[in-house]
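Can anyone check this?
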Amino acid sequence: MTFNQQNQPQLCVNCGKPAAYEIRRDELFGSGEKAVIIENIPMIKCRNCGLIYLEPQVSRRIDEICAHPEQHTTQVEKAVAKIA
């Protein structure tokens, strides 16, 4: 990861400022019957420029999950709402 042992901010890959921190959030990949929600994804967010990006190993893991969801997911029912 991008953080040292004390979770101090590190340099952002975009702006170069020492303002990058880890955040975690859920994301939806795909749509309809093939949609996959991946929870608790570790991301890097820069407090200076606002860029949010994934480390390469996280991106590879997401690609693997989306390519073979039957091996990595559990079917659950979720409430879904549409604004427009």
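Reply from J.R.: I decoded it. The domain at 10-69 is CATH 3.10.20 (Ubiquitin-like (UB roll)).
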